[in-house]
Amino acid sequence: MKRAIPSHLIRQVTPDEVEIIYDIINDAAVAYRGVIPADRYHEPYMPTEELLSEMEDGVNFIGSEMDGELVGVMGVQDRGDVTLIRHAYVRTVLRGRGIGSVLLSVLLSDIDGPVLIGTWAAADWAIRFYEKHGFQLVTPEEKERLLKKYWRIPDRQVETSVVLADSTWWKSKE
């Protein structure tokens, strides 16, 4: 049984912590190796330039700090009529201890409108995580429409991804 996480601080991550965000993302993204399509996986998984571009495009990160060290990050991006949860990663050695759940809960507590999350279709652990938190997969047709409208990702990534939506988004479709 995994031990519970010690007390930790959830805080805004600052732009001068790009190196630490980079380290966390690329450490955690090793889980995708051999799982997502080989043409979509590369090392580093998210180069510094891409991370900076995401931040310039409005992705704001919060992080979980334990013993003075940032150990997990999760981004949020306002897209007008929806908010996207982006780039959710926890250091590999600390996965499964509730850090991601706390980060998601904090982000969701500050969002009023619909929330969408995109992830790799083959990352079943990520899909289960978001479903555990009340998100539901949208149809393949809706996934394609949403990814092309709200994300700036290559067509190949659209093909190999899924989108999950929160209850607010589903209610807006009724």
Q: Count every helix, treating DSSP H or I runs of 4 or more residues as helices.
A: 7
CATH hierarchy class name: Alpha Beta
Average pLDDT across residues?
A: 94
- Helical residue percent? 25-40%
Spell out the CATH superfamily.
Answer: Gcn5-related N-acetyltransferase (GNAT)
Approximate strand percentage:
15-25%
Structural class computed from helices and strand pairing? alpha+beta
Count the beta strands: 7
Order of adjacent strands in the largest pleated sheet: 1-2-3-4-5-7-6
User: Mind describing the biggest β-sheet?
Assistant: 7 strands, mixed
Overall geometric form: globular
The helix-strand sequence is EHHEEEHEHEHHEH
The CATH architecture: 3-Layer(aba) Sandwich
CATH T-level topology: Aminopeptidase
Contiguous uncertain segments of 5+ residues: none
Could you tell me the radius of gyration in angstroms?
15 Å
Count of the domains: 1
N-end to C-end Cα span? 42 Å
Protein architecture, described:
With 174 residues, the chain is of the alpha+beta class. It has a single domain, classed as 3-Layer(aba) Sandwich (Aminopeptidase), CATH 3.40.630.30. It is 36% helix and 24% strand. The protein has seven helices and seven strands; from the N terminus they run βααβββαβαβααβα. The chain has a seven-stranded mixed β-sheet, with helices on both faces. The chain is globular. It starts with 8 loop residues before the first strand and ends with a helix. The relative contact order is 0.15. The mean pLDDT is 94.
